[in-house]
Design a protein that fits this description.
The complex is a heterodimer of chains A (822) and B (101). By secondary structure, chain A is an alpha/beta fold. In chain A, 38% of the residues lie in helices and 19% in strands. In chain A, strand 12, helix 14 and strand 13 form a beta-alpha-beta unit. Chain B has a single domain, classed as Non-ribosomal Peptide Synthetase Peptidyl Carrier Protein, Chain A (Orthogonal Bundle). Chain B contains four helices and no strands. The longest helix of chain B is centred in the C-terminal third of the chain and has 16 residues. The chains are: A alpha/beta (822), B mainly alpha (101).
Chain lengths: 822, 101
């Protein structure tokens, strides 16, 4: 690799796009209709809107919906996954890549594949196009990240009765199910996650995907968003009076939005690989920024301060000068609260004289919620390739605060911008900003740190907090587990944040928010994070289901009383980033903020995401968290997922940890629990046990490889198993197959004592691993205090503990937690 | 319609305090007796926010059939100022509803 190649190695290209929206089901058709200034917004036909304030939305043509069913009609899936599959397939096809299954393929990596293609091409130039069109990517080297605002909510709406939920449809509801079903149908086996940051979700998914490639966890990623039009979500925007009875005019005189639906995907890969294989490159994704307003659950910060922070982060990471940004695709929903605040935020970023052309694409196809960021990006990139940027339809006169902005109105403007920014904002205060280089004529090479340096920065754990069994713990998690193991006492009471710290509590705060804020407070205190440090702190939170209690309260109001009586106070919690959002609001966590679901790997995934961000110097410290809540709805989901057959009782709880750059931790004299030295993640389906065991082995091998150790160096394995019949035995078998009998470390699971929660247990095991390798634990272990847990009584400090987690659908993640040796 | 259909002001106020505010919004640490008729509900006073205002409106429709959709936002703010003004809005709407019957 020459110098140029190594620079390109972690630069990311967009090489495939797919789209499904009210204007069309492929990029060219959508472009032509946008070019003709057509809108896809019309009268809602999918449900009755008589009693509501608007009857408009950007619905998909029924024929396209039917087409989205092709080849999957017999399979049980939510429409959210179906839309995503249609758009992801399109994107993959347009990229000229194909996924190849099987073990042989898993041995190859994409660079070898590219080289092989080039070798063939050199010999037979005639076949260049044909060969490039079928370039095969091993399934294990391609991942998928999906952004969704409401997950499989249609699977609950289909039943319209929470008191009698079935198993088949209910199993399709969880957010993570959408990403998992899409990945399964596409044949993806690399990292898979469902980002749930509401209307910013697919922007976050695209950013996350670029990280997975830059950090080496995948060579190619499919990333996008999906949200079908939902009756109950429509009713929620109705009760908040956010719907426009007329065609929405972002930045214009008429307040209110029109909802839309659909899915959009991009294919991301390394720029060098894309150039080498002669792929069509739509843009270079230079960087992305995330933030949280920490202001209000539904309303944006009135001056757009959160949006400003996301844009500034993206620009700074991209190392692109503000004057080089020649087009901004704004969130521009049309609501009274959003548009003015957004323009204000842009002014704060780019200067009071905002001369950059700005437009909102939402008047073309409506506000497609979790899909919005991906849809608006994909359609912008396609238009820019044709020499145009999207316009804001239906714009009349600028509303207050938007007078001086250069809003592109009515028809697309002929332009070939050098760089563009694409922004989205969400309920829960989450913001995302993407920076892309769209002028690919010259090889502009913003200089970024090399991969070698990225690997050098080390990540340590400096704070632990948990709320479990109704109690709050600041560190001391293994001691608590040991107590549980001896007494077998199960906590019956719930943790009360109101009693613990009333200043962080507010009325109707659901149990998951209370637990998470409690755990976060404990972890921050344990790490001695100051108020000033908190402003720069990242916050990454994983929850499989969010507050199922709040979600039920809302759906109950719609299903029982009717959509016109939808409850405004519970609606903001149907988006499950509300937990992270409320935590950020109460703790004033303004920086890099994300929320996601995997359905069981949340703890390890949050750690992987945060560690990567610290290693690459985007963050110097990050709070991570994971949590679940028990409710009647969660018990129905448990039943649908076969969790009632688990050997463990289902529990609720939250765990938080503070991760920190090693140098900074040493400098500020933090006490360090452990070092995070390696991660691995692999997507699989629990179709059969050999396949599931192979997935586990892949995740573990990758984690050991990144940590630079073998199974023989492990002192202990903490296995967070779901515990359904046969599952744990299979997992133990798989782990045992990876080491010689005499080198096999003990395998322990603490779910027997603490109970099981998809997200909670994953981080609880990671936190326990961190304590067990810390110096503090050594004396406890020597005294036999942890014997009840099965931890060997020994005097030597443990050096490496492996934490393994599985999702209910059969994916695995692993992390090597190592002793911190000064 | 009979006279008994026309609700008296005190009953309405009591219902607003208990059902519309305390029960519906799950207010904590406050009783109906502590909510005076002139206590400011939004922003200061009781400290309710805009999302809760929408819940109150839905509640008025559910409990009394009062439709506030056509009332402009600025005017609505005045009607939702305190228990007294909400009760007056409900009374006015009830009378309007029974006129001509």
């Amino acid at each position: 690799m020459n110098m140029k190649d190594s620079e390109r190695a972690h630069r990311i290209a967009v090489t495939g796009i797919g789209v499904l929206c009210a204007l069309g089901n492929e990029p060219q058709i959508v472009f032509e209709r946008m070019f003709a200034s057509e809108t896809g917004i019309g009268t809602v036909t999918r449900f009755k809107t008589d009693a509501l304030l608007s009857s408009l939305a950007g619905q998909l043509d029924e024929a396209w919906r039917d087409a989205a069913l092709a080849n999957t009609a017999e399979q049980s899936m939510d429409w959210c996954a179906r839309y995503a599959i249609a758009a992801a397939k399109q994107a993959l096809h347009s990229s000229g890549l194909a996924i190849v299954q099987g073990d042989a393929a898993a041995q190859a990596d994409v660079v070898n594949a590219v080289n092989a293609v080039n070798a063939v091409n050199a010999v037979n130039a005639v076949n260049v196009a044909a060969t490039a069109a079928v370039l095969q990517i091993p399934a294990s080297r391609i991942g998928l990240s999906l952004g969704t605002c409401n997950g499989g909510i249609l699977s609950l709406e289909q039943q319209w009765d929470l008191s009698a939920l079935d198993e088949e449809n209910t199993a399709n509801y969880p957010f993570y199910q959408q990403g998992d079903d899409t990945a399964r149908l596409l044949g993806v086996q690399g990292p898979v996650a469902t980002l749930n940051t509401a209307c910013a979700a697919s922007g976050n998914a695209i950013g996350y995907a670029s990280d997975m490639i830059r950090w080496g966890y995948a060579d190619v990623m499919l990333a996008g968003g999906s949200d079908p039009l939902s009756h109950s979500v429509y009713a929620g925007f109705n009760v908040l009076r956010a719907l426009n009875p007329l065609l929405s005019s972002p930045f214009g005189s008429r307040f209110g939005l029109n909802l839309g639906e659909g899915a959009a995907f991009v294919v991301l890969e390394r720029l060098d690989a894309a150039v080498q294989r002669g792929a069509t490159i739509y843009a270079e994704l230079c960087a992305y920024g995330l933030s949280n307003d920490a202001h209000h659950m539904t309303a944006p910060h009135p001056e757009g301060a959160g949006m400003q922070r996301a844009v500034d982060m993206a620009l700074s990471l991209a190392q692109v000068a503000k004057q080089d940004i020649e087009y901004v695709n704004a969130h521009g929903t049309g609501t009274q609260a959003n548009d003015r605040a957004e323009i204000s935020g842009l002014k704060r970023s780019f200067g009071e004289q905002l001369t950059i052309p700005v437009s909102s694409s939402k008047a073309y196809f409506g506000h497609s919620l979790g899909t919005a960021a991906a849809l608006e990006l994909v359609t912008s990139l396609y238009a820019i390739k044709q020499g145009y940027v999207p316009a804001t339809l239906h714009f009349d006169t600028p509303r207050e605060g938007c007078e001086e902005a250069d809003i592109i109105q009515h028809s697309m403007r002929p332009m070939r911008p050098k760089y563009i920014v694409s922004n989205n904002a969400a309920f829960g205060g989450h913001n995302v900003s993407l920076v892309l280089r769209t002028d690919l004529s010259e090889a502009a090479t913003p200089h970024r740190e090399s991969l070698a340096e990225h690997a050098k920065r080390r990540v340590v754990i400096t704070g632990l907090g948990a709320v479990g069994g109704g109690q709050i713990h600041k560190g001391g998690i293994v001691n608590w587990l040991a107590e549980q193991a001896s007494s077998k006492a199960s906590g019956v009471s719930s943790f009360s944040l109101k009693e613990y710290d009333k200043s962080k509590y507010e009325r109707r705060m659901n149990q998951l928010s209370q637990n998470t804020i409690g755990a976060a407070l404990a972890a921050l205190e344990d790490a001695q994070i100051t108020e000033v440090e908190k402003e720069e702190l990242g916050f990454i939170f994983g929850t499989a289901r969010g507050s199922t209690d709040s979600i039920s309260q809302y759906l109950e109001s719609v299903f029982v009383k009717g959509p016109e009586y939808a409850s405004s106070i519970y609606f903001p919690h149907t988006v499950i980033n509300s937990i992270a959002g409320q935590t950020a609001e109460k703790l004033k966590l303004l920086g890099f903020n994300s929320s996601f679901s995997t359905g069981g790997n949340e703890g390890l995934t949050a750690a992987l995401y945060a560690a990567g961000k610290i290693r690459e110097r985007t963050l110097s410290s990050c709070l991570i968290g994971a949590g679940d809540e028990c409710s009647a709805l969660s018990r129905d989901i448990d039943r649908a997922k076969g969790l009632q057959a688990s050997r463990f009782r289902m529990v609720e709880g939250s765990v938080c940890m503070v991760l920190c750059d090693r140098e900074q931790a040493v400098q500020r004299q933090s006490s360090i629990y452990a070092e995070l030295s390696g991660f691995g993640t692999a997507f699989g389906t629990a179709a059969n046990s050999p396949q599931q065991e192979a997935t586990l082995c892949r995740a573990v091998a990758d984690a050991l490889n990144e940590a630079g150790i073998g199974m023989a160096q492990l002192d202990l394995i903490l296995l967070n198993t779901v515990g359904r019949p046969g599952e744990t035995e299979g997992e133990r078998r798989a782990l045992s197959s990876m080491a010689a009998v005499d080198q096999m470390p003990p395998i322990l699971s603490f779910n027997e004592y603490a109970g099981f929660g998809e997200s909670y247990s994953s981080m609880l095991h990671l936190a326990a691993a961190a304590e067990l390798v810390s110096g503090v634990a050594a004396s406890e272990m020597a005294s036999g205090a942890y014997a009840q847990l099965g931890v060997p009584q020994q005097t030597a400090q443990l050096q490496h503990v492996l934490a393994v987690s599985s999702t209910v659908n059969g994916s695995y993640s692993a992390a090597v937690v190592s002793a911190w040796n000064d | 319609m009979g006279v008994e259909q026309i609700l008296d002001m005190d009953t309405i106020k009591q219902t607003i305090k208990q059902k519309l505010l305390i029960d519906r919004l799950k207010l904590e640490d406050i009783t109906a007796e502590e909510i005076t008729d002139d206590l400011i509900l939004f922003g200061e006073g009781l400290g309710l926010d805009s999302v809760e205002a929408f819940e109150v409106m839905v509640g008025m429709e559910e409990l009394y059939g009062v439709m506030v959709e056509q009332i402009p936002a600025d005017e609505l703010k005045i009607h939702l100022k305190n228990v007294q003004s909400i009760a007056e809005l409900i009374m006015a709407s009830q009378q309007k509803g029974t006129e001509g019957l």
